[in-house]
Amino acid sequence: MRHFFARFTVAAAIVIFSAATAQAKDPLRILVLGDSFMTTHTLSGQAVPNQLQKVLGARVKSRAVTGARYRYMMPITGALGMKISKQYRDGPWDWVVINGGGNDMWLGCGCMRCKRRMNKLISPDGTRGEIPELVSKVRNTGAKVAYVGYLRSPGTWSPIEHCKAEGDALEARIAVMAQRDKGVTFVSLADMVPSGDRSFHAADMIHPSVKGSKAAAARIAHVVNGGKP
Q1: Which of 13-17, 122-126, 190-194 shows the lowest mean pLDDT across its residues?
Q2: Is the pLDDT confidence value at 23 over 60?
Q3: Which long-range contacts (CB under 8 A, 24 or more apart) does 174-181 make?
Q4: What are the beta bridge partners of residue 80?
Q5: With contact defined as beta carbons under 8 Å apart, do 46 and 210 qualify?
Q6: What's the pLDDT score for residue 154?
């Protein structure tokens, strides 16, 4: 009987150890939501979500859609992903990586007199608006959130150069929102592009180049791995 219990104890320990080891090796499950910042270079397999998968060895599912906004009123195409909050799908996600808001500001008000639109996206204290509502929905599932900002132009002309002040103000509000919840991190890219360096941007000077996508993914991966933004 003593030998039986000894064998049973050893066998149970092996099962528990094996289960713990298998669990520890399970890759992270990451969902990506957003706009063309996340979709650029998808066809070549070098978009930000692709780069995240390579860097982290994670299971990454992207539902980002080119041109997507938060304030999108067409029901059918909105449900298909043109409305960023509609991109979310339930799942056992460890992290949800989100970006967005740029199209609302640039296309919605031309980055001029945008205070009302910005307030609909996110209030100054980060508690109300479309962005906090989506983030809160994700956090209620237990997943952590990495909210990613946009590239800045490198001190040379770009079609959205005049949007800088509004972009800074929007991201400042998102940063305030993130400070209210330890499970939310704002990943700023504002300082990533050296002055005069056009290599982080695609030819349109709006979207990231492959180099820019890799650099952004590296910053996101750093946060997912527990580093400070």
Answers
A1: 13-17
A2: no
A3: 174/101, 174/122, 174/126, 174/131, 174/147, 174/149, 176/124, 176/125, 176/126, 177/122, 177/126, 177/127, 177/131, 177/132, 177/135, 177/147, 178/126, 178/147, 179/126, 180/126, 180/127, 181/135, 181/139
A4: none
A5: yes
A6: 85
- What secondary structure does DSSP assign to 118-162, as a single string? HHHH--TTSSSSHHHHHHHHHHTTT-EEEEE------SS--TTGG
CA 98 to CA 34: how far, in whole Å?
6
41: helix, strand or coil = coil
CB 221 within 8 A of CB 28: no
Query: What are 82's two structure tokens?
Result: 């043109």
Contacts of residue 154, defined as CB under 8 A and 6 or more positions apart, other chains included, come to 193, 194, 195, 196, 197, 198, 200, 201
Q: Which residue is associated with the tokens 């056992």? A: 92
Chain centre to alpha carbon of residue 139? 13
CA distance 75 to 32: 21
Q: Are 64 and 87 in contact (CB under 8 A)?
A: yes
* Interior angle at CA 217, CA 105 and CA 173, nearest 5: 35
Q: What is the tens place of the pLDDT at every residue in 72-100? A: 989 989 999 999 999 999 999 999 999 99
